[in-house]
Amino acid sequence: MTRFDLIVIGSGPSGRRAAVQAAKLGKTVLVVEKRERVGGVSVHTGTIPSKSLRETVLNLTGWRERGFYGSAYRVKKDISAADLRVRGSKILEHEVDVLDHQFARNRVATLTGEARFLDPNHIVVTRGGGAEPEHFEADRFVIACGTRPHRPANIPFDGRTVIDSDEILKLETLPRSMTVVGAGVIGVEYATIFSALEIAVTLVEPRATFLDFIDREMIEEFVHELRDRNVSLRLGAEVTAVEFDHAGRPVCRIASGRDVTSDVLLYAAGRMGSTDGLDLDKAGLETDNRGRLTVDPKTLQTAVPHIYAAGDVIGFPSLASTSMEQGRFAACHAFGLEPTPLPDHFPYGIYAVPEMSTVGMSEEDVKKRQIPYECGIARFRETSRGHIMGLQTGMMKMIFSKKTRRVLGVHIIGEGATELIHIGQAVMALKGTIDYFMESTFNYPTLAEAYKIAALDAWNRAFAPSVAAPETPGMQEAAE
């Protein structure tokens, strides 16, 4: 039996960060990954593939240039499923190579196989190809096994016409129509990506609202853009069954009686923790009904103190970015190093078309806390950069405290939202106020100018004295 200071189960964002952090502390580390190659869901079926698909679609369709050249503009006239996979396969190879090198240079041992606990300090790893199971012992563990798509027994998945979010990347041909069940982050992203290919998409969600953690005004803007390009939204539509018509096409039965028929049905309603094969009961652990582990949010320890969990397997926010920090945090805490606390405010990015990103409180949050506030709005079309890019849509919303003038939240929808959000994140982290945006100089022309436009808008509404604020070049519309 081989002994390690730390064994990490899973090599996704949280697993690899935990392993590397522990190795940098001089600890012996083993990473067990059940896939043939490292990277976890993030690299193989989740974050990287879906964002690569999105970028490919936007490039091949000429989506970003249609503001100038019209809706009929195309970079490639006939786009096939094979075209969509080319970029993804190249990026996958690069990502795996980077991770292999990272583990090698930090002397992190890796092993392909399925791990399961024998007791709180021992695991056995079963490998393919007839290899003998291997036993390992460790003082500490990090469970970072991630999640997989939820596949209810009453949904007739066949891998071709009724698929989950892992299988959608393997489509052999592009359909003419698609139904997406589940308006969570994954469902919304894929629905809008395939809509950009001019595939008729219907998005079905049993709740009356969706993406409830996003500011409602941004969702209203998002819904308007989707309807403007004929994405059909069926909110409050409970799916009772999925059947097939005489042509073999999936029919989504809705409780209201308004069924949806399409060439392909993507079921994206939730995910499950990939914990069922770990024999967690032998380690003294239990999961919830979705296979997720509960941890102490201050330490990321499970009910068994020397076993930590991080990443999607512990639930919200289930972001690659936050998972990485959770992995680092868990490894530091496990070996007695006082880790930097996880941030109060982190950016949330949704890579839909258009993309959305948010940090801090929404307007609904501010109202609940009864904080006197004011909002500032900037439209990307108000910026010179927006004109140059041909943008007709896109907006930024900033929320300020009327008492302290501090930034309470930033919400962006449109081109570059997930990049632009970090300016607002930095100012919030440094307890900045509206004055920063009023007094700072931004590159011109840029979309980042929207920060000053939004700040001027809020200033004019709530903070301006009787004499108007000095006019800033390029900001005349906002100052009026």
From TrEMBL:
Family annotation (InterPro entries): Class-I_Pyr_Nuc-Dis_Oxidored (IPR050151), FAD/NAD-bd_sf (IPR036188), FAD/NAD-binding_dom (IPR023753), FAD/NAD-linked_Rdtase_dimer_sf (IPR016156), Pyr_nuc-diS_OxRdtase (IPR001100), Pyr_nucl-diS_OxRdtase_dimer (IPR004099)
FAD/NAD(P)-binding domain boundaries: 4-327
GO CC term, one of those recorded: cytosol
Binding site for FAD: K51, D312
Domain Pyridine nucleotide-disulphide oxidoreductase dimerisation: 347-454
Record-linked Gene3D superfamilies: 3.30.390.30, FAD/NAD(P)-binding domain (3.50.50.60)
Biological role: Conversion of NADPH, generated by peripheral catabolic pathways, to NADH, which can enter the respiratory chain for energy generation.
Keywords: Cytoplasm, FAD, Flavoprotein, NAD, NADP, Nucleotide-binding, Oxidoreductase
Organism expressing this protein natively: Plantimonas leprariae
Keyword Transcription regulation: no
GO biological process, one term: 2-oxoglutarate metabolic process
Coiled-coil ranges per UniProt: none
Protein name as annotated: Soluble pyridine nucleotide transhydrogenase
Pfam families: Pyr_redox_2 (PF07992), Pyr_redox_dim (PF02852)
Cofactor(s) in the UniProt record: FAD
Family recorded in the similarity comment: Belongs to the class-I pyridine nucleotide-disulfide oxidoreductase family.
Binding annotation for NAD(+): G182, A183, G184, V185, I186, G187, V188, E189, E205, G270
Protein EC: 1.6.1.1
Subcellular location: Cytoplasm
Cofactor details (free text): Binds 1 FAD per subunit.
Domain of life: Bacteria
GO function terms (MF aspect): dihydrolipoyl dehydrogenase (NADH) activity; flavin adenine dinucleotide binding; NAD(P)+ transhydrogenase (Si-specific) activity
